[in-house]
Amino acid sequence: QVQFVESGGGLVQPGGSLRLSCAASGFTFSNFGMRWYRQAPGKEREPVATINSSGGTRSYVDSVKGRFIISRDNAKNTVYLQMNSLKPEDTAVYFCKRTGFNDYWGQGTQVTVSS
């Protein structure tokens, strides 16, 4: 079945960086776009970054533009989120899913930005 396993989160100081990974399985990864989401405490889950199947097209929510970079390795069935210049408001659980399908969510990975 379709699965997403997120990893790479942790506690980081403001201004720091983290690289998240999402290993996908159960479908032909290279055929689908992928999207990172996040859910902060008490808030709705929101899309953060999207990448198309080939990796040639990327888009970001305004709040992370210029700081986050989404990428993918189709040989490894993995999508990444490089997060730089982190802010306390980036604190959230981060998830990934393929675009266009109502798949089950993975467990997510916690990112905490705090001094």
What does this structure look like?
- It is a single chain.
- With 115 residues, the chain is mainly beta.
- 0% of the residues lie in helices and 48% in strands.
- It contains no helices and ten strands.
- The protein has strands spanning 3-7, 10-12, 18-25, 34-39, 46-51, 58-60, 68-73, 78-83, 92-98, 109-113.
- The model has no long low-confidence stretch (mean pLDDT 97).
Q: What's this model, at a glance?
A:
This protein is mainly β and 115 residues long. It contains no helices and ten strands.
Mean pLDDT across the residues is: 97
| Largest sheet data | 6 strands, mixed
What is the element string, with H for helices and E for strands? EEEEEEEEEE
**Rg measurement, Å:** 13 Å
Describe the secondary structure blueprint for this structure:
Layout: E1 3-7, E2 10-12, E3 18-25, E4 34-39, E5 46-51, E6 58-60, E7 68-73, E8 78-83, E9 92-98, E10 109-113
Parallel strand pairs: 2-10
Antiparallel strand pairs: 1-3, 3-8, 4-5, 4-9, 5-6, 7-8, 9-10
Descriptive terms for the model:
single chain; 115 residues; mainly beta; 6-stranded mixed beta sheet; 4-stranded antiparallel beta sheet; 10 strands; globular
